[in-house]
Design brief:
This is ATP-dependent DNA helicase. This protein is an alpha/beta fold. Helices cover about 45% and strands about 20% of the residues. Among the domains are: about 170 residues, Lambda Exonuclease, Chain A (Alpha-Beta Complex), CATH 3.90.320; about 140 residues, no CATH class; about 190 residues, 3-Layer(aba) Sandwich (Rossmann fold), CATH 3.40.50.300. α2 packs across α4, α6 runs parallel beside α7 and α16 runs antiparallel to α17. The longest helix is centred in the N-terminal third of the chain and has 34 residues.
Amino acid sequence: MTTPLDSVAPTDWHYTVSVRSLCEFTAKQGSLDRRFTPSATALEGQAMQLAVLARRSPGYEIELPLEGQVGRLRVRGRADGYEADVNRLEEIKTIRGPVDLIPENRRALHWAQLETYGALIAADRGLEELELALVYVDADSQHETVIRDKLTAAALQAAFEARCAQFEAWAAQEAAHRTARNEGLAALPFPKGELRPGQRLLAEAVYRVAANGRHLLAQAPTGIGKTLGTLYPLLRAMPGQQLDKIGYLTCKGTGRITALEALHALRERTPGQALRVLTLVAKEQACEHPTKACHGDACPLAHGFYDKLPAARAEAVQAGWLDAPAQRRVALKHGVCPYYLGQELLRWADVVVGDVHHAFDPYGQLYGLAQAQGWKLALLVDEAHNLIDRTRDMYSSQLSLTRVREAVAAAPASLRAPLRRLAGELARAGRDQVEDYQPLTELPDNLAEALQRVGVALGEHVQNHPLEVGAMLEFYFECLSLQRLLDRLDTHSLCDLQRSAGRVVLADEPVNLSLLQEDEPIDTGDVREVLLSVRNIVPGHFLKERFEGCHSVTLFSATLGPPDYPRQLLGLPDDTAWIDVPAPFPPEHLTVQVAHLSTRYEHREQSLDALVDVLATQYEQHPGNYLAFFSSFDYLDKAATRLALRHPQLPQWSQARSMGDAARRDFLGRFVEGGRGIGFAVLGGAFAEGVDLPGTRLIGAFIATLGLPPVSPIQDQIRERLDALFGADHGYADLVPGMQKVVQAAGRVLRSVDDRGWVWLLDRRYRRPDVRALLPVWWQVPS
């Protein structure tokens, strides 16, 4: 930025920046290079630092807090190590493979950080000169590659001041922006004039937890305005709590549209629209050249990325509204990648809208950057009843025999021996087990060894062939994910081997025995398909530190209860607050009926006539549009067929097993004002939540079964594991998540305070006290 300092900031401005942020802003030049280079994990980095420390002298100092100021810019950070007896400052980086594989941009960044720490420690300790050592430690061999230079304190200080001068105009702009943002948010009016009663209760709860640095579980029904009811109070809390960033995260993409609409209305009411809103876009959606690799030699939008970034960044933050179209427009104007421009803008946005994986995935960008930069971060999680299943998937992995076999076919000759051995050991483990499903406390030794050998072989391969992408790289990631979860296997996750009824041939070609070691036999006979899985059951083991690392997190949904369910499974703190917001609908607006029949699996055939008669009778008495939900496509098809036979005059249409966007729109397009008919859908599927059909577009819903998962050995193991961790009879494995699906589906009926409708619960078990306790308290369910 070239804007004069005094014109963009108050005269008393000051700005604090980390060494890392300062250097990332000033030291990166040239092209973007996102080619894969093997990297170490955070735990491996800590281990290597300890290994280096063990080789240093007894007086070696580690994690030195350093701080310096140039003008109004304050710079802080922690240097890795200082050895006073030789006057050497070290920056330690853990890597895998040769140093030559590290992109030039990254090496320049590392050296800039070391130089900056050198200036800070020289000024702090009155040093006249200093030896700098950039130490790259290989995680596998522990070999150190050291790049050294000896510089005077004057040279270090000059480089530091130049770096600060390069950043100072941007810092002044950011300080002015933050001042304007906080002043605007402190007086932000509610865009709708007055908050609704339930919306006010929710907003007050969100504000209180943000003010106290706590977390909140908010169960709030449809119709109260949850999006504005959470965003507005958190934005109002932002200045007082000195929040750096707010993340509005969703479990499904449709929620982001509503969030952006609300943020647009709020932003318009801040003076000068001083609120930067960024949408985090998936790479596959933002990529302009999906067939090109992400480096300057292959993609024109990666070439010279960091040289063109300053102008693109300046224009983007000046605009402030950074949804996907805006990011693309700015990026293409300046010839840079839209996706990676968005990643850079994450540092300078006030509110970030995106998927939950950005905060909760092991490699989530929002959480990772917040920890690295020391941001004070607050999160809002929409439709949070989905978060347990979403995060379970994030911390689960699997490997099938078919997948290994595909890797064998695609592998170069040098990798086939370890891959074939893995295939043989996986086949043998499946063949040796007594049942088709077998839980494991640990892998068989031979299988564990084969998996580790494949990991080492693939790691060496990608190190030696860094420009290669494709099947081997993807398979390497799969093996790494599985191995890392196996290394952390405990009661929070389940490891198992599953053998399917079908058969696959292990190899299509004769085995080249010259590629095998004598101690690596391989079975090439026909074997059943085998699936090795690590299934996370309690994601809270991994998420606990995520919640601890955020200032405040609010999880909200129409179906979150009972509160102990998300609190215990997600690892929320014990002092997490809970609010159950009253419904805005008069109870008499929703007529709830229970059909005295059984939809248990063994009773479904004999109760099918009675079930479809309930649908037909309700339709005859109150014609209109209805949704009928079933636990599976098989059950749905049988009910739709039986209804057509017994009541052919009744219009109906059904959800298909595979539906694209156009087919989904056609399905929902049948629900018109004043329309008549019954749409058949799967409980928990695309039409069971996130669907808004107000007024007479939908006047009722039929829900067959209790939404329980099908009986299976895996489900039995999940129940046993949860019982062991949290006690018996809690319903965490089946009843609680099943009833959440039921209430979500029923929530399609009343969408506004003026709506009226019917919900039919098609099973006599809905009269049981334990089931009724999980239904909304305002429902008038007949006993």
